[in-house]
Amino acid sequence: MDQQGNAFSLFQTAISLESLVRSRTDELHSALRRLEQSNAELIEARDRAEQANVSKTRFLAAASHDVLQPLNAAHLSVSALADVQTSTEGKRLVRQVERSLETMETLLRTLLDISRLDAGVVQPEFTSVSLDQLLQGLRSDFLPLAERKGLRLRFAPTSLTLKTDRTLLRRILQNIVANAIRYTTTGGVLVGVRRHGANLRIEIADTGCGIPEDQRDRVFEEFHRGVAVDESGLSGAGLGLGLAIVWRMVETLGYRVSLDSRIGQGTVFHLDIPASCITPNEPSQMLAQIEQPRGYGLFGAKVLLVENDPDVVIAMVGLLESWQCDVRAAGTTEEALNELNDTAWIPDIVIADQHLDRGDLGSATIIGIRAWLGRVIPALVTTADPDPLLEEIVAEMGAELLVKPIRPARLRALLAHMLA
Questions:
Q1: What is the CATH architecture of 302-419?
Q2: What percent of the chain has pLDDT over 70?
Q3: What is the CATH number of domain 124-286?
Q4: Tens of pLDDT along 356-400?
Q5: Where do the domains of the chain lie?
Q6: 3-state secondary structure of 402
Q7: Per-position b or e across 372-394, b if 16+ CB within 10 A of its CB
Q8: How far does Cα 354 stand from its chain's mean position?
């Protein structure tokens, strides 16, 4: 009986264990099914996010052209208006409108840049860059502003050449130097380069108001602003986007940015670049390009303007005519070629917007005009949507590229240089 009882007990235990195993197996299958469902939902969410990024990129491409087009027309119209103002009050109001337009342009461009960087559509183009030449270019840009505020601005010379993206590195340093000048009222700003461990460190030091310790991690966030004094002496602040875009550009390049600051004494920004980016110096690259003096004599120059936006056409024609140019306008490639039927009027230069009506492209229009005339006529392509591929196409054509909104002074200097 004892033996039978033990056997029956073992039998019951085996059944109980089998039931427990079956239960645990069912639970495991159920957990696996839930995990598969979660994975499917995650994949679907990822696909939706990727599609949203694609849509965002397409929107930005359209926005950068359509949003900035009216701003470009406003810039040109205000410039033409400034030329006819004689009263002090009129000139003051024109300058006020210009400053508002410049602020709006900066805000829009920065927001578009941040969105492009977040979407991952900005890819660095690494080339050999003379660091000293880049810094001296920044010095030329900021020296007038520093002098107006009574500040000293110094860029320490360097003989280094870097393998980097020139445009992104320049924008990073430009934004940091602009901030340094904005938040400094006495003393000055110093930019220098030195070795720091395994890195090359570019330092931008100022004698400004300093950054409180609890705000140092927030200065790279969007719309985080401090109180500054502008060149007019009025208390104000920046847009709060300069350092936000610096952070994104630094990450895009694989660099690192940090800062040290003391209240009332100033701030030092550190940009650390891997030493592997340093390249052997090439004499041809170390020589700064010396620009030839540019004349502004555009009197009588025949300009063929190919532009489809009516407001931009009106503003551009008015501006060119105020410079004593002989202007004819067209909105498509066909209309531009029709203007050439008048053999008594041969254009000296062509200005073409890249995106025209009927899907025409300004670069293709210029090629057609040159083929019609049988010679390589000077040409300028304008666009509100800069693209590396377009830059290559324009360079291969031997033409110039100008990004909208167009600054009248820059346009006039460029036209004079091309005609010369």
A1: 3-Layer(aba) Sandwich (3.40)
A2: 81
A3: 3.30.565.10
A4: 988 889 999 999 999 998 889 999 999 987 778 888 899 899 999
A5: 124-286, 302-419
A6: strand
A7: eeeeebbbbbbbbbeeeebeebb
A8: 19
